[in-house]
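Posting this for the archive.
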Amino acid sequence: MAAAPRATVYLAETSFDLREEREAIRRDLLRNGYEVLPDRPLPLVAAELETFLGDQFARCSLSIHLIGRGFGMVPDGDTRSTVAVQHDTAAAQRGLPRLLWLAPGSAADDERQRSFVEHLRTAPAVHAEAELLEIPLEDLKSRIHFKLAPPETRKEKTAAPAAPATSEMTGLVRIYLLCDRDDLEAARPVESFLFDQGFEVLPTLFDEDETQARLDHEESLCTCDTVLLFQGEASEMWLRRKLREIQKSAGLGRQQPLLAQGLYLAAPQTPQKEGFRTLEAQILRELPTGFSPGVLAPFLDEIVRQRRARA
């Protein structure tokens, strides 16, 4: 008897220019035991298409939409392309997460497609349950697998062990979200998203007793698995000082190298941020529209890769 599929994924039909990329994603999903929809050709009549899509999405735990240069086919009775209809219908399904992928460096051939892409990039409603990614195809594959099989979350707290639990013992990945006091509120969406994804987030703590705050900071540097620096209002001097402190964490008693190190550059945009470069951290630039989970995807993918390499 064949094994049941791990999960069911909707991989949207694309315009002609992305058919090879879609097929590569489809093969990868099937090879890893996932069921892939749609399981038959899309209806060419608008009303029939929306009914068909509703039935398909009801079976899925994730929908994936590859957005290319071409506008694609238009179903009879509609002005939207089948690519747009699939996305809009998926967005209407309550609780269905979506991954939207724009091929890096591609430019739409059609004004209608340019308007659709701009809508995906800027409309707040699009990002409520979606991640918009502009990353290489192989990174997209990693992100898909991360969404379908996220890190373990601790469902119950047990009695305190004799010794402090480590990441290896609990299966948790601890991310130290390091920010300045002026950026605490701006960093909240990042903190909430990471926690919802199953990560143990160590926030930056501030205390009137600077000694206690410093001790907590040093302990977090020693016990975390990865550091994500968040710079919004903080100065470049603050950023460089924190990078140096991370470099020196081994001298504080840190035993293992970090799984990954990220730098999230948030609003306001400044010439300093636009020109900042470093090899010590993965730079993640916030979109002009504000926080989008897709910006964190390369950083989270690196955590997954490093965990697998160390397993």
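The longest helix spans residues 210-223. Residues 8-148 form a domain with the Rossmann fold fold (CATH 3.40.50.2300).
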